[in-house]
Write a structure and sequence with these properties.
This protein is mainly α and 257 residues long. The chain is built from 11 helices and no strands. 82% of the residues lie in helices and 0% in strands. The longest helix has 35 residues, at 92-126.
């Protein structure tokens, strides 16, 4: 446990010193400023426009964080030959878990900054104290730590960074589309292909379903979140993330470095 925490802290310190970290902060400020700007052009509810566009910006930033500070940092450390020195001192599973914990902390940090800034924008421009944005921060953290686990699994399998990044983005898009795909095939009824429907269902079970973390409508309209669905989403996140990290650890142990 001590090694895991040390590696996590080192990961965070390296990220803070990276110029990409500052660049992402400026990009986040740009996205939030853009959200405030388009809200002034909207004829609808200003607060809802800010929250809707702001949450989309929060997701985009955390996607970049997952790829750049999650996956890319692993490959960069391996290229610099620093990985082999570390693995002489700690186990491979401790190294991987420490790196993941550090990446998760950065995702949490950017989510909190985004959520806090979005709350202030909603209050000053929309006149509404949108406390429900705390839920948006939580689900954003769950979603992108889960996506980070996918990136770590691909790294442990020996997949190149470019292919890893492409696959992570693809899984992110698919994870937000599977529910609609299944419902579309069901709506087709007898005109749809049963084989295609079963194939889509199997894929939706194997790949992470990010639609479980989508409470955007409830948050924007300040409605209470269904308790059963919240419990299911948290349980799904915990079980799926544990499975990803276990598989990543097993693959990394058997990988020839």
């Amino acid at each position: 446990m001590r090694h895991i925490l040390t590696i996590a802290q080192t990961t965070m310190r390296e990220s803070f010193r990276d110029r990409v970290f500052v660049g992402l902060l400026f990009f986040l400020l740009f996205l939030l400023g853009f959200s405030a700007y388009i809200s002034t052009l909207s004829l609808s509810d200003v607060a809802r426009v800010i929250q809707n566009s702001g949450m989309a910006g929060m997701a985009l930033i955390c996607l970049l964080v997952t790829i750049l500070f999650g996956a890319f940092s692993l490959y960069r450390e391996e290229e610099r030959q620093e990985l082999y020195v570390l693995l002489n001192r700690v186990s491979r599973s401790s190294y991987l878990l420490g790196r993941f914990a550090g990446t998760a902390m950065i995702i949490i940090l950017f989510s909190l900054i985004s959520g806090g800034a979005l709350f202030l924008l909603t209050f000053f421009f929309g006149g509404i104290p949108a406390f429900g944005l705390a839920w948006a921060v939580l689900w954003n953290i769950c979603e992108f730590t889960l996506l980070g686990g996918v990136a770590f699994l691909f790294y442990a399998m020996g997949i190149s960074f470019t292919l890893n990044a492409i696959m992570v983005i693809g899984i992110f898009i698919i994870g937000h589309s599977m529910t609609e795909a299944v419902e579309s095939f069901i709506a087709l009824g007898r005109f749809g292909s049963p084989l295609h429907l079963q194939s889509v269902k199997i894929i939706s079970y194997l790949l992470p379903n990010f639609d479980l973390f989508d409470f955007r409508l409830e948050i924007i309209h300040q409605q209470p979140l269904p308790r059963q669905r919240v419990f299911l989403a948290l349980l799904y996140w915990l079980a799926y993330l544990a499975a990803l990290l276990t598989a990543a650890g097993a693959c990394f142990k058997s990988r020839d470095l």
